[in-house]
Amino acid sequence: MSGCERCRPMKRPPDQQDKRLVIPLEVHDFDRWLTCTTEEARTMLKLALVELFDAGPATAAVAA
What we know:
This protein is mostly helical. The chain has a domain at 22-47. Helices cover 20% and strands 0% of the residues. It has two helices and no strands. It has helices at 30-35, 38-44.
């Protein structure tokens, strides 16, 4: 076994891991999201439309 036990990062058990992620919401749902029940929140979870993203392939840097 390479390395020491203290050098490896400690991984928490699954029930203690932080499971946050970005949830895209419609503007009109902001206040509702903060006060709704878990079941109501589930109805607001939707995939964001691809048109909302500004992404594409990276361009290679040109050497001078």
